[in-house]
Amino acid sequence: LAEKNRVEILELLRRKGEITIRDIEQELGFTGTNAYYHLSLMIKANMVKTRNQGRTVLYSINKRHFDAVRGMLSKYAE
After folding, report:
1. Segment (H or E) for 27
2. pTM surpassing 0.90?
3. Please, which of 3, 15, 22, 62 could form a disulfide with 49 given CB 3.0 to 4.6 Å?
């Protein structure tokens, strides 16, 4: 989350719900390789999940992951 490009991708995911690599290329001006690099890191961190629709891969926020993180951090906000 400290990396600007990943925050931009997460914001796009939040606004659109599900996106493709092509959406990232068009909306954020990333190359396909750059978009895939950032998405793959976020998938490994469990922040983003994938779904196949035919030959298209759709990416979305893994809300369960962020709910768990919020739960773990909430004890420090008390």
Report:
1. helix 21-28
2. no
3. 62
